[in-house]
Design a protein that fits this description.
Layout lengths: L6 H4 L3 H20 L12 H11 L6 H18 L1 H6 L4 H21 L15 H35 L3 H18 L12 H21 L1 H22 L1
Length: about 240
Amino acid sequence: MKPQTSYWSATNTPLYSFIFTLPLLLVYEVGLFAISSSDLPLLRNGADVLMRQILEMFGIFGTYGFGGTFLIGFIIAFLRQKKELEATQISGEYLLTMLFESIGWAFVLTIIMLRAPEYLMITKDEKLLQQVVLAIGAGIYEEFVFRVILITGFAYLLGLIFQWTSIGKNIGSIVLAAALFSAFHFVGPYGEDPSTYLFLIRFLAGVFLGVVYIFRGFGIAAYTHTIYDLFVLIKFTTSS
């Protein structure tokens, strides 16, 4: 019988990230269908703007097309890991522990952002359902774009151009991705007015989430981001 892989190495794999993040994606898609079409534009964020523009180049338009394309990508990635799935015993205990770990990282991020916790997520609309869906969407899409795609891409380019070591590539890619993560909160018709203070606040959060992604994978980074945003919503609703 094959010995069970340790929690830290097993859960830092694409397979566990896929299984762990899938419920979050499904809840987000269900939330979109529960929202009226006139309210959907309010869910735009930096990653949303970037991904929509890329998809529109290939003739894919609309919020549902965006989410559906991402879900199809998830399924393709899952099928490509079919052999690994057959050879690996998925531990429900590990998945539950990943949830509690994500809550822990979200608490740490909340402490870091204690003086300005509301500034990581743009909340233009006062309807609770829209804000919950926005929080979930930000956790999934922003982490996928600014951590998975950009950190991986920047690390490759830094290694190719400057021949940096693994540590140098990780640090450089985290910093560059965090800068773009912060800047994209000011992009688009629903973005905020440029502000050095807000940029630095979100840059710090981007660095933290980048470190979580490097050491713990996409799934935990996505849940950490989502849970943090939900903490912010709880703060707003209980203080109003």
